[in-house]
Amino acid sequence: MEKDKDLEACFAAARTLAPMPDRALLDRIAAEGRALQPLPRPASEAKHAPAAQRGSGPWRAIFGTLGGWPALGGLMTAGLAGLWLGLSDTGGVSGYVYDNSGEGWLYGPADIVSLTVAEEGV
């Protein structure tokens, strides 16, 4: 028990004397950080040009309304996916879950339960 008290006294003394880095080290770290930062680029003239010179036609208005190029890319992706589902050979979305021969669903509730039971081993 005596050793535990001595050890706890050493830990308490160590907690009160927290090591602090010296000012020279902190200045060197800050100088290295400033040296690694990129230099500011000069502003391009296109940003400061009047709207009449940049073009404010109907396409710019459409792109602005839709949210710019990123939103237009998402809209095009969704449109092409819909086109693919509509023109695919399976008869659209229903061909993926409904049998084309007219017999009924490919995967009904009973099939899902039997697949689950077979996989789980219940």
Defining traits:
122 residues, mainly alpha, 66% helix, 0% strand
Structure characterization notes:
This protein has 122 residues and is mainly alpha-helical. Helices cover 66% and strands 0% of the residues. It is flat. The chain contains 8 helices and no strands.
Low-confidence runs (pLDDT<50, min 5 residues)?
none
Query: How far apart lie the N and C ends?
Result: 58 Å
The value of Rg in angstroms is: 34 Å
Q: N-to-C SSE series? A: HHHHHHHH
> What structural class do you assign from the helix and strand content?
mainly alpha
By DSSP (H or I, 4+ residues per run), the number of helices equals 8
Overall geometry comes to: flat
Beta-strand residue percentage = under 5%
Helical percent range?
Answer: 55-70%
Q: Main β-sheet: number of strands, strand sense, barrel status?
A: none
Number of DSSP strands? 0
Rounded average pLDDT: 75
Protein name: Dihydroorotate dehydrogenase
Compact summary:
This protein is mainly alpha-helical and 122 residues long.
Topology at a glance:
Elements lengths: L1 H15 L6 H14 L8 H4 L2 H4 L3 H9 L2 H19 L6 H4 L11 H12 L2
